[in-house]
Design brief:
Blueprint: E1 5-10, H1 15-24, E2 28-34, H2 38-48, E3 51-53, H3 56-60, E4 67-70, H4 77-86, E5 90-93, H5 101-114, E6 118-120, H6 128-138, E7 145-153, H7 158-162, H8 172-175, H9 179-183, H10 185-195, E8 198-206, E9 217-224, E10 229-235, E11 245-250, E12 253-258, E13 261-267, H11 274-283, H12 302-317, H13 329-344, E14 348-349
Parallel strand pairs: 1-2, 1-4, 2-3, 4-5, 5-6, 7-10
Antiparallel strand pairs: 7-11, 8-9, 8-14, 9-10, 11-12, 12-13
Bound molecules: nicotinamide-adenine-dinucleotide.
């Protein structure tokens, strides 16, 4: 086997960030890109000096490709993933893994049967501050967990939904929702990754500021397996777009985070506040932090680079990737429970799978 792992990307919106990430990752080589839209395909292939395909089936015949990164509309991930599995190639699947747990389960079963590697993309889990927060919570440093809250008051113009690649966004069939499934899924995943599984959900949602089918505002109450309660808020209506906020309260401390920056790190055990000062020096308000609050493409591709590097190692060392599809499933389960609750007016209990 060559020391370089060959990658291909299908879907060249967010997929272009994957191309950059592959380009900058050691031992990874971008072999090909695929998009049905030639206006995206040709310039991207030229920029990265790789092969261009308009048809996925043709691309999958290329033996130099070991891994396919799937960055097509969310509701197509399983359908495309099953073709990638059939071609015997590994895959990295953009968030959400798909828009229903039934489809994600179908993909996981196919991946497991074929013995290939499949990774999800929740790049926020690789953010060092999020890792510190998770370690503190899971290490019991906040005492008994009481409250876990995630708010995402973002803004998207109507043109985001109307543009040439906007028509699937905010639809049930392809986006699986709107502000919650598309933008909010990272926040939902972080809450459960930091604080443990959610066992029941109550939710409301609706369309408030756009001409779209699904939703552009959602609120939910969460009950965690630990006994903690939580709230979730997502919107794409909050002009001009405000920062994501995550707050976690325990019996012996509380942590507050705003977008990429730590706002407060208060632990009973941290007498004199030395630890908080150190943490604020490392993770406090950054001058150049990028935010997706108003710009859909302002996501750092550094997390994606780490996911590529991890996949290269997973393939070469024959181990599981860091973010398995199975671990990417619960966020989708929580989100669909919010919608089910909103429709039925009932509290929805989750399966615990
Ligand atoms: N990780 C993140 O932070 C992040 C950020 C943005 C988007 N995403 C995810 O990336 C995915 C794509 O989102 P986007 O905003 O780039 O969408 P987009 O519509 O801009 O891009 C999707 C591309 O896929 C192409 N495409 C669709 N079906 C195809 C097929 N069968 N074969 C080849 N090409 C096909 C389209 O022509 C389009 O260029 C979504 O799942 C989204 O949730 C993730």
């Amino acid at each position: 086997m060559s020391s370089e792992t060959g990658f291909a990307v299908v879907g060249l919106g967010m997929g272009k960030h994957h191309c950059k990430a592959i380009h900058s990752a050691p031992n990874a080589r971008l072999i090909a890109v695929c998009d049905v839209d030639e206006e995206r395909l040709r310039p991207t292939a030229e920029e990265f000096g790789c092969e261009a395909y308009t048809d996925l089936a043709d691309m999958l015949e290329n033996d130099d490709i070991d891994v396919v990164n799937i960055a097509t509309p969310s509701g197509s991930h399983t359908e495309i993933g099953l073709q990638v599995v059939a071609a015997g190639k590994h895959m990295i699947v953009e968030k959400p893994a798909d828009i229903t747990t039934a489809r994600i389960d179908e993909l996981i079963a196919a991946v497991d049967k074929a013995g290939i590697k499949a990774a999800g993309v929740f790049q926020s889990r690789l953010d060092p501050l999020n890792m510190e927060i998770r370690n503190a919570v899971q290490g019991g440093r906040l005492g008994r967990l009481i409250g876990v809250h995630g708010h995402l008051p973002w803004y998207r113009k109507q043109s985001y939904y109307d543009g040439p690649h906007g028509s699937w966004k905010g639809t049930w069939g392809m986006d699986g929702g709107g502000s919650l499934m598309n933008q909010g899924v990272h926040t939902v995943d972080l809450l459960q990754w930091i604080s443990g599984r959610v066992v029941s959900v109550m939710g409301m949602f609706g369309v408030f500021g756009h001409e779209i089918e699904a939703e552009d505002q959602s609120v939910a109450l969460l009950r965690f397996e630990s006994g903690a309660l939580g709230t979730l808020y997502t919107t794409t209506c909050a002009y001009p777009g405000h920062d994501q906020r995550i707050t976690i309260y325990g019996s012996e401390g509380s942590l507050v985070k705003r977008e990429g920056a730590l706002e407060s790190w208060k632990l009973l055990a941290d007498e004199g506040g030395k630890e908080e000062t150190d943490m604020l020096n490392r993770f406090g308000e950054k001058v150049n932090k990028s935010s997706g609050a108003a710009d859909p493409m302002a996501v750092s591709f550094d997390g994606h680079t780490q996911i590529i590097i991890d996949m290269v190692e997973a393939v070469q060392q024959d181990r599981e990737p860091m973010i398995t599809l199975h671990s990417a499933r619960h966020a989708v389960e929580i989100i669909n429970a919010v919608f089910e609750s909103g429709r039925s007016g009932r509290e929805i209990r989750l399966s615990g799978k």
